[in-house]
Write a structure and sequence with these properties.
The protein is of the alpha/beta class and 390 residues long. It is built from 16 helices and 15 strands. It starts with 15 loop residues before the first strand and ends in a 10-residue tail after the last helix.
Length: 390
């Protein structure tokens, strides 16, 4: 990577932060992909082990040959440290606990601080589940989480609920704080109205997203609102099972599985949909949400949300004002609130306005990026974080 790609352009003199994520980036991780572009005072350097087709390879530090790939797989990132050293990074920011552990030796070799964002499963999954996952990075994390907690400089939990869970799991209270990811208020502008028919569901199709529960609730809703449509954006291992379930429930004509879609398509559906449904729950292996970024994005779009009382979801919905929070795992409560919103355009309109206001005050990505850069300043200067920052 060159700091001055063209001879007639000055080098970027901003202090550098290494954004480390082993896969750069998984399609569903738009929240990680948006990290670098949101920074203003810091120069982002992407570093990882695998190009997933969602970045420009020339702009990232990746293994260049089989030897580096093999060493990386064995947990040795010395080659990456040597390639990053000329950039004089101020700190490393890793996403997810396993990548935080992988980046710990890298940070120590470069003698710079390590910031790790905890997103959900990396806190909620049990050690046994991580060890039995078959994923080498997760297995290493199960065995080395205490080391990361001891030596990492700062841990950012994406919700207050996740922060509390992380502290109970052994992360240090004085170095673990809540930092909301936020939403791009320009990319998700408030809508003037909705189609009155579409219930939107966005997320990777895995157990914790509660999509099977939503199908059961939608069956009840169709009985009183036959014109309703459920649009499901996202892909994942449960998609074939969920498609079969929709057919078994007689919902094949009313449910659209659209697979993974770019952010602009998600934004378009948010502008036209009547309600966003986020019925997340704790999976059998302990997998749980931190705070789904789709909720702040929906709020920015002025879209009312029905979400479950799960992890950080209630932090992004003002129950009864910007949406509804329903008990986790309860089909009846979920369907009742969806029906209530589908029946009342005025309620959707008032809740949508309140949701947009919440997005502007709590989840503005630009404001969150400014706060993040102040945290970078503090951790790189070894300045103690104040009580207000924590």
């Amino acid at each position: 990577m060159q700091r001055a790609p063209h001879g007639d352009q000055p080098a970027d003199q901003r202090p550098a932060v290494v954004i480390y994520r082993a896969p750069l980036f998984n399609p569903s991780e738009t929240f990680v992909r948006a990290h670098g572009p949101a920074l203003k005072r810091y120069r982002p350097l992407l570093a990882g082990l695998e190009d997933k087709g969602n970045i420009e390879p020339a702009l990232a530090f990746l293994p260049r040959n089989r030897g580096e790939r093999l060493r990386a797989r064995l947990g040795n990132l010395d080659w990456l440290a040597e390639r990053l050293r000329p950039e004089q990074p101020r700190l490393i920011h890793a996403h997810f606990g396993p990548d935080g552990l992988a980046a710990l030796d890298l940070a120590q070799r470069l003698r710079i601080p390590l910031v790790t964002t905890l997103h959900g499963y990396d806190v909620s999954r049990t050690r046994a589940a991580l060890l039995l996952s078959g994923k080498l990075s997760w297995m290493r994390y199960a065995l080395g989480r205490e080391r990361l907690a001891r030596h990492g400089d700062l841990f950012l939990a994406v919700s207050e609920a996740l922060r509390s869970m992380a502290i109970r799991a052994g992360y240090p209270a004085d170095r673990t704080m809540t930092h909301y990811i936020g939403a791009d208020l320009k990319a998700f502008p408030a809508s003037d109205g909705d189609d009155g028919e579409t219930i939107l569901h966005v997320g990777r199709l895995v157990e914790k997203k509660g999509t099977a529960l939503l199908l059961a609730a939608f069956e009840r809703l169709k009985a009183v609102h036959p014109a309703a449509t459920l649009v499901i954006i996202g892909d994942g291992p449960l998609r074939p099972l969920l498609e079969r379930r929709a057919m078994q429930l007689g919902l094949a004509e009313g449910v659209r599985f659209m697979g993974s879609q770019p952010a602009r398509v998600v934004a378009e559906w948010m502008r036209r949909s009547a309600v966003l449904a986020v019925p997340s729950l704790t999976a059998r292996d302990g997998d749980a949400e931190g705070l789904p970024t789709v909720i702040p994005e929906a709020a920015a779009s002025g879209l009312a949300v029905v979400g479950s009382d799960h992890s950080g979801i209630p932090e992004a919905i003002i129950d009864g004002r910007s949406g509804f929070v329903v008990p986790e795992g309860q089909v009846e409560a979920l369907s009742a609130r969806l029906i209530e919103l589908m029946r009342s355009p005025d309620l959707r309109r008032s809740m949508g306005a309140a949701a947009r206001e919440l997005a502007e005050t709590r989840f503005d990505r630009e404001a969150q990026a400014e706060r993040l850069e102040r945290l970078y300043d503090a951790v790189s200067d070894s300045t103690p974080l104040t009580a207000s920052e924590l």
